[in-house]
Amino acid sequence: MVNLDQCYNIFDLREAAQRRLPKGIFEYVDKGTEDGISLEENRAAFQRLKLHTHFLNDWSERDLGTDIFGKRINLPFGIAPTGSAGLMWYQGEVELARAAAAAGIPFTLAMGALTSLEEVTKAVPDARKWFQLYPWADEAGNYEMVTRARDLGWEALVVTIDHAPGRGREHNERNGFSFPFKPNMTAAVDMALHPGWLLRVMSRYLMNEGMPTNANYPERYRFSVIDGKTRKSPVRFQAMTWEHIKKFRDFWPRKLIVKSILSADQARAAVDAGADAIVVSNHGGRAFDSAIATIDVLPEVVEAVGERCTVILDSGIRRGSDIVKAIGLGAKMVLVGRATLYGTACGGQAGAARAIKILSEEMERSFGYVGVRQVSEIGPHIFARRSVGK
Fold it and tell me: Which long-range contacts does 221-226 make (Cβ < 8 Å, 24+ apart)?
């Protein structure tokens, strides 16, 4: 068992998760794409930003909460869509959603999750729930999933637009890892060397509901994560245009979020198509290895659309100070992916809660150093170099 109290930062949780997970699954979560340049640059870009300390302010009463879509969240971050949560822990999506609800922050369910919209709704009725979609060429299949989220009352639809070109994750090939998983000797040995994971995760699925599936897919596309057999040919992802976003806007009655924005012109196009919010994201360095770091492009996006929509940032968040920097450059909140996945792998809801607590405590310390008492006081003035964000 992982002693969560001895995990003092997200990197400690990462190391503990690495010990507990099969290599193929861990690297699927942890690594980026191709040479890992975008993954490394996300971190380096945050690290280049230095903050201006401001002491002798009365910051004894601090409030880390803010408003998103007219409702309060207790911390200025939420859980990003991560389809592998159910491989970190048995029903990992539910564990993550429970941790998010307890912390008073939003949770985003990935369409490829192993737990269904209906199960999450029943298990965590009080969570602020967002549903993420990678649009397929089969538009009817898209709207079947979106309709379920709509009818269950989910708050927001998050449409991710960067998937169609595909991914270059060579490490998955080397590790014999695919999703759905195709049995092979490399992965079989890997899993056999991690009997704890087999007992904690896979055996529990087998004993309770059987082999897990992509629970949110329409029945005709749903398959076991092991054998990969489908009732029809595998789905193809859609080569999207902004007309597709407009159609989602017309259909979806609540908040529409467009994810994977990396330029001012794309941000303007998303808002023109009806987005209530955008996520400045390069998929955590897991999509295009030559993509710009999100924190570097954030100021121009905020300048372009910050008055017209809610600007959210993800990719590269590992410290509470990263969240403060993102807010300082104009983001209203951030989404956290890997950090809470590491925690989930270490202890389910308790591990995810530990990750959330680590980030919140680091944020609170950063508040003290830069001399702010609440999120609304954070701005470009916190940066040591005043040209940042101009």
Answer: 221/138, 221/141, 223/180, 224/180, 225/114, 225/179, 225/180, 225/181, 226/180, 226/181, 226/183
